[in-house]
Amino acid sequence: MFPEVIERLKQHFCVLSNQADETWSSERLVENLQGKSGLFSTGGERVDASLLAACPDLKICSTMAVGYNNFDIDAMTAAGVLATNAPDVLTETTADFGFALLMATARRVTESEHFLRAGMWTRWSYDLFVGSDIHGSTLGIIGMGRIGQGIARRGAFGFGMRVLYHNRSRLDAATEASCKATYVSKQELLGAADHVVLVIPYSDASRHTIGAAELALMKPTATLINIARGGIVDDTALALALSERRIAAAGLDVFEGEPQVLPGLLKLSNVVLTPHIASATIPTRLAMANLAADNLIGFLVKGKPLTALNPSVLGPR
Ligand code: DGY
């Protein structure tokens, strides 16, 4: 963790930090949480009923991620423990990365770089690593929250793309106009888009939003980009579709069971793989960490967290 964030926390609390970045087993985590009022999570720690039962002093768990599928919110609410996350501060950086991954995938950037580095480039030819166009193509976004809207704006205004989106609920007309985006069903989006970007939160309901049936609806020339969470895509079905060229390519920043990656994906050349880095710039990671610290200080010192996920535990105001 950024030393300056630890220092900020130390102005208010007695802090035990894992600056050696050791992997703590769940037993060690529970042991280290004894007598602690707050947990600062960098995103991976599972907080569920059994951890809460074993850590009775815990009052708040603050994650520096926007995604909080490592928190069992129902169990936290039942235990009267506040959950907070870090939205907004990573929106533009993550949307930038979504676009970077889309472009690298559609234009075969990493595949062609590997070819060049391997000394295989002996002559130029007109069809060397031909990819698919981004400008003027159709962009489909599944999940039109803040990050999805950021990607839509980049597509519509930066690259002249036709933007289709699908979301649990349709956006209001002003927001749709601000991203030049058109609401369609998931099926229509999958059939029409040249590039599909996934930006939905993970839950039991969103698991395998893209599986064999959905991949079958996509164009054989299409690309699929996942910057949401592992498990939103059925990685096994995707690896098969990519190997049979039923879709052209995929760009994946998140994986089922990460940091393990399905061996079938690692073997393929038509997939760009990155290790969950969509929000990874220094200013953004610092802003995320500071927001997580602000939530701990806001709640434990002032009684007012900034971004509560289960505000009902705060009681009537
Ligand atoms: C987030 O903020 O959810 C990113 O995926 C980092 O975990």
What would you say this structure looks like, in words?
The protein is of the alpha/beta class and 317 residues long. The chain folds into two domains: 3-89 and 281-314, Rossmann fold, CATH 3.40.50.720; 91-273, Rossmann fold (3-Layer(aba) Sandwich), CATH 3.40.50. The chain has 13 helices and ten strands. The strands form two sheets. Strands 6-5-4-7-8-9-10 form a seven-stranded parallel beta sheet, with helices on both faces. Strands 1-2-3 form a three-stranded parallel beta sheet. The radius of gyration is 21 Å and the shape is globular. Bound molecules: (2R)-2,3-dihydroxypropanoic acid. (2R)-2,3-dihydroxypropanoic acid is lined by residues 43, 65-67, 90, 279.
User: CATH class of the largest domain, please?
Assistant: Alpha Beta
Q: What count of domains describes the coordinates?
A: 2
Content of β-strand? 5-15%
The chain-level structural class is alpha/beta
Tally the beta strands. 10
**Ligand names:** (2R)-2,3-dihydroxypropanoic acid
Count of helical stretches: 13
Mean pLDDT: 97
Q: What's the Cα radius of gyration?
A: 21 Å
Topology, element by element:
Elements: H1 3-10, H2 26-32, E1 38-41, H3 49-54, E2 60-63, H4 73-78, E3 82-84, H5 91-106, H6 109-117, E4 138-142, H7 146-159, E5 162-166, H8 173-179, E6 181-183, H9 186-192, E7 195-198, H10 212-217, E8 223-226, H11 235-243, E9 249-252, H12 263-266, E10 271-273, H13 282-300
Parallel strand pairs: 1-2, 2-3, 4-5, 4-7, 5-6, 7-8, 8-9, 9-10
Helix pairs in contact: 5-7
Bound molecules: (2R)-2,3-dihydroxypropanoic acid (DGY).
